[in-house]
Amino acid sequence: MSVGDEFLIGRPTSRPLSALPSVSSVTGTDLYDLASRLYPICRSITGPGVRETLRLIADHIDIDVHEVATGTQVFDWTVPREWHIRDAYIKDGTGRRIVDFGASNLHVVNYSAPVHATMGLAELLPHLHSLPDKPDLIPYRTSYYQETWGFCLAHSQLEALEDGDYEVYIDSSLVDGSLTYGEFLHRGATDREFVLSAHICHPSLANDNCSGLALLTLLAEWISRYHTRLSYRFVFAPGTIGAVTWLARNEARTPNIEHGLIVSCVGDGGGPNYKRSRRGDAVIDHAMEHVLSNSGFSARIVDFAPYGYDERQYCSPGFDLPFGLFQRSQWGAFREYHTSADNLDLIAPEHLKTSLDVIVSAIEIAEKNCTLRNRLPKCEPQLGKRGLFGPMEGNKASAASNMAMLWVLNLSDGDHSLLDIARRANLPFSEVSGAADRLLEHGLLSGKTLK
Fold first, then answer.
1. How many CA atoms lie within 13 A of 333 on its CB side?
2. pLDDT in tens, 21-46
3. What gap in Å lies between CA 326 and CA 359, rounded to an integer?
4. Is the pTM of this model over 0.85?
């Protein structure tokens, strides 16, 4: 019997998650292609772009779409008006569009109020945003909660503007509507949940966060085919206000959350980086650190800080949920961050696939982690007569298998989980879990308690 067999439920045609060691059916190309489809959409914290994105995601999973009306109070926040944008430009004196929303949706400050006016350069300049230290890139700017308008452009272009009159036009509207978010629930054998969340509000930024949306969508589609012990909830919501709204509407459900992971910037070749939960010692923290330590990468693990992405909402003191943040390059730390250089050239299929494999490895730990008891704790049981102890000399695989079994037997005292043992032994979790399976089959372990 494998470690999770007694917890298997679901469709008769599906298989236990433990039957598949990696997401081999999801390729890096699959992930990149979906990110590419998501990339052109002009998203914001509300509006048509979010709904269009969720419709694309719905091609893969049966996503539930929720609409929360403008003016709804969600803790200390209020759901804002809905933003729609149709066109925007700046024209010079010849009538030529020198800044064009149609060329890049980053050209307009996200959530800009409507404007149509002719003004001189001096009047226009306070409404223009550029990056002097990155003169060829268009910055990404927002104004969600302060009604204003503006344009973003390359600093080299801004410096080339001449005195004269300019026509500025933003065809947008701020109207009573709703905030939209989506979620997909894969029900497992228990109501204990592993929640994975990606922000859906950024426009054409490939790494931040088309990569996260694509990864979680295809992960959800993959996991839906398998029996699992835990239930898996995937949340696609706008940053900050979306997480606040989800928590306000699901507060009664939060005690069921066993593990949580925010996923963003997972398509480039940096890192990987993992930010611990506020607790610092949650199972997800130990699982991610263990996976990354065995990944072959020079991964960076950082402590929690109350700034970043939506982990800071889930980890707020009134909830203190076990949520970490997984990224390749850390937000704000790569040159392309929140600029037009965060395009489809920045992300690559192989990096998306590696990110997916890391998360699946953490999920496998969440599924299989348990504590066990050695039924023969007084001295080592004789493994050779049971056909379990292979020849050590010159056989690295046999030696590794033997050591994994010895570690499991020594620390299976009802207090140490398999993840504890893997971390203590500095062995991959899969080897320790496999050793536990073999020892269970031979009746040397008992008293399984899932963690």
1. 13
2. 457 789 999 999 999 999 999 999 99
3. 9
4. yes
From CA 451, how far away is CA 92, in angstroms rounded?
65
Residue written as tokens 């010692």?
281
pLDDT in tens, 328-384: 999 999 999 999 999 999 999 999 999 999 999 999 999 999 999 999 999 999 999
Exposure string over 290-303, b if 16+ CB within 10 A, otherwise e:
bbbebeeeebeeee
C-alpha to C-alpha distance for 116 and 103, rounded to whole angstroms: 19
User: For residues 262 and 324, is the Cβ–Cβ distance under 8 A?
Assistant: yes
Enclosing H/E stretch for 357: helix 349-368
- How far apart, in whole angstroms, are the C-alpha atoms of residue 429 and residue 404? 10
Q: How sure is the predictor about 9, in pLDDT bands with cuts at 50, 70 and 90? A: very low
Which residues are 221's β-sheet partners?
none
Sequence-ordered list of residues with C-beta below 8 angstroms from that of 439, at least 6 positions apart, any chain: 388, 405, 408, 409, 445
Residue 437 Cα to chain centre, angstroms: 31
